[in-house]
Amino acid sequence: MRPLSLTLAAFGPFQDAETIPFDRLGESPLFLINGPTGSGKTTLLDAICFALYGRTTGDEREGSQMRCDQADDATLTEVIFIFELAGRRYRIRRVPEQPRPKARGEGTTTQSAEAQLWVIDAEGAERLLVPNKVTEATREIEQLTGLSVEQFRQVMVLPQGKFRELLLAESKEREAIFSQLFQTRIYRQLEERLKLQSAEIRREVEKGRQIQQGILQGIGIETRQQLDDALQTLQPALQQAWAQRQAAEEQHAEGVQTLQQARHLQEAFSQLEKLRQQQAALKQRQGEIEQLKQRLQRAEQADRIRPLFDRWSTGQAARQAAETKRQQSVQALEQAKQTLADAERALKKSEALSESLDRQKQQLTTLQGYQQRAIRLTQAINQLKAAEAAEQTALTAQREQQATLNKIIRQGEQLEQKRSAQQAQLNQLNDAPLQLQQIDDKVRDRSALDELVRQRAQQQGELQQAEQAGKRLAKVHQEQADAAKRIELAWHQGQAALLAQELQADQPCPVCGSREHPAPAESAIELPSQSALEQARQAVQMAQEALSAAREAYAHKKSEGASLESRIAELEQRLDAVNAMPLPQLLQQQQTLKQTVESLQSIRQQLQLLESQARQQKQAEEKQRADLERLTAQVTTAHSAVAAAGSELKGAEQELPADYREPGLLDRAISETASDIERLDRAIADARAAYQQADNGYASAQATCQSMQESLLSAETTERQAETQWVEALGTSPFDDQTVFEQSLLAEEERMALQQTVQEYERACQQTAGALTQQQGVIEGKQPPDLAALEQQLAGATESKNAADLAWRQLDKRHGQLQDAEEQLVQGERQCAALEQEYALIGTLSDVANGQTGDKVSLQRFVLSVLLDDVLVEASQRLQRMSKGRYQLLRKSERAKGNRASGLELEVEDAYTGKCRPVATLSGGESFLAALSLALGLSDVVQAYSGGIRLDTLFIDEGFGSLDPESLDLAIRTLIDLQSSGRMIGVISHVAELKEQMSLRLDISSSREGSHVSLVTP
Fold first, then answer.
1. What is the per-residue pLDDT across 915-962, written as a single tens digit (0 to 9) for each?
2. CA 952, CA 2: separation in Å to the nearest integer?
3. Which of 69, 126, 121 is nearest to 98 (CA)?
4. Domain 1-156+951-1018, CATH 3.40.50.300 — does that match?
5. What is the average per-residue pLDDT within 907-919?
6. Are 258 and 853 within 8 A, CB to CB?
7. Number of CB atoms found within 10 A of residue 498's CB
8. Domain limits of the chain?
9. CA distances from 951 to 336, 586, 846, 914 (A)
10. Hey, which of 123, 493, 659, 957 would disulfide with 160, CB 3.0 to 4.6 Å?
């Protein structure tokens, strides 16, 4: 990640908006962030960290606590950060939760926290990635950078007072950071996958064993041997039951066949009787069928003359319809004639309304002319009222403003008196802090010396005890190691014998695959178990941990003793140079000065408050005077407006008649006149339209009446012709009259039904006669069977068959259960054996990958340890140069105590003593150089590995003040050398030597109005 621009507003000590143009520093700049204490140097790093993650670098203050107290209430606290990552640019904006003035009314409301993230393309166009969600923006930043906020602080920012965190981090913490930087999640995923796979295999084996036991319990058997015995015992009984079942089934089949034949014969006798009954019934219907045939014959004769009868009937219906329509047309003609007469009378009346219509139109024109005058009058009245109200409001505000101004002037005079008194008191007490500091130094030095002398005596005793304990633990460790080696040797030698104990005849050997085992291995001694071997290894591990802890404690105590001696000598030398004063007198003087300083601080705060109140009072007085002048001008303007509005009102009243000055009267008169005009127009138009419609209707009725008369004459002629033809045809037919003819007619459906009835009767007669002859031939010479006796015999055979079948099925079911159980057991044993073989491989791989063996180092931690070695090589090169060849960083090889993660701890090799010791024993300045070297080495290695996270920016906050001039010069040279690698390095410090050697700076100046940033280039 590479910063391009940072904008802060009302953030920390920055009162107004400040923009830091990092892109103007160059491609690979080494620059200094310089400024006095409290000016806001660290705030720049806080702002970057807050913009990215919503948290500050020190994590000591929340975002809501970063608001500038001097900022204007209307200024929103926010941070905007533009940065480049993997060739793409991004812009993020964050706003912490803060109070802000209400948009309407007085008081404040709470501004919720906000966060927006944009990506910027090559043309400068922005695309919104996160609209407003704070947590979503943080999650997106973590995915882009690959670092959490804690990891960001440790590898890209060395915060003030926390540069030792990465240096002193435990293996677990350093593993989390390195796995993100080097993208080694695949190894962790492999560990988890192996662990899950081995656990799954163990569960499957246990599940298989439980299933086998459940199979045996399900069939009521406890062991596999009992299952084999049950199968051998059941086989003979099953064969005997099968033979009995076969015999019973043959006997039952013969009975079924005999009964079926008897039933067929009985059915034949029943069918013969049924046919005879059908033939008798058909003979009884013979007379009915003859009558149907005669009726069909008369219907055929009637159909020959039916068309003439239908034509005459149609002519009668047409003539009656024409007569009805003619009568209706005559009535419609009379009604149309009456309607026309009424319309003529209404038309004559409407002509008299035209004169009234003209008068109303003239009246409407006159009233509309008065409308503009009425509008002017209304506007003049409203203007006068508004002007009078504005004049009264301005006068009231003017009086109130004058009273407020007088009150503010009196308050300002009182504040000035208080401020002068406080300033005089402050001038008398200004020297108290310096005196208190001198007394504090003396008291602290004497108390510290006494405490250090006591600690030295105590530490000498502890050092002797630690030395004796270390010797005892070394002896115990050697004994445990020897015992473990003996057990492990015996265990390895006995593995062949253990494997031979599992061999079975005709089963393949898991090593060579052979089914013959002529000489299996044996052991003459009792073999150690896996658990005994593990216990021995754990005992050695615990002894090693205890020994390492004792050695570290001894070295730590020895280092602390040397440090105590140095500090005691320094304090004794300092106290010898000071004129001694009794300690009680020093303490009494210290207490008196503390009370004075506390009161001094209170006086300063009160004075600052009074000065702030005086400034506010002055601003308020100036604002009130300006408001009073503005209100006075408003009163004058309002008085002039009242006079002008009154003059306008008089002119408007003269132009409008008095009858229409009342509001609404003129509009009402115009509306009524317009309604009268509309009513008269509608009445005249309706009369004319009604007359035209009546005249058209009368002409249409005349034409319709004439047409209906002609249709009636034509229908009468057609009816007479059809009647003559029908009478002639009926006279020559076999029917006596028209009634007999109509009774002989049949509908088509009825004729078809009668014909079908006759045909079905004739067909039934033929079929019954043929079937009767055939059935008599079938039963000729036979007698009806005894079905009851045959059914009783079959019932007995069925009962015997069912009993035999039930007995056989019970035995067969039990035999099937036993066989299925045997097959399932064989298959389950085969699967369990395969799973155990698989677990022998996967389980071992899982234990090794997850650090469950040896030094408890997992696969990922092993890979990271190799990468850490590369980092330490780069870091040690810089540390040796900055420490003048004394120190280099090494990875600790011993395993950590207890169950803590191991493999990534650090220690430092001291060339002066030739020994390695913990990094925690380094002094403040040495720790800073070591942490700086580690950060730079980490950056180099991460850049070199493909797929890692780019660490092309590093900020260092303080720490240079703890270095001597020579070490400071070496550290600066090291940083200058890094410019060739293309990284941006920012140093925050107030050390004067850095300002002289680094010409590229961001200078921060502070004042009562807040801090400001300026860019200084060479």
1. 888 888 887 777 777 877 777 777 677 666 644 556 678 787 765 666
2. 6
3. 69
4. yes
5. 85
6. no
7. 14
8. 1-156+951-1018, 301-352+668-743
9. 107, 54, 34, 34
10. 957
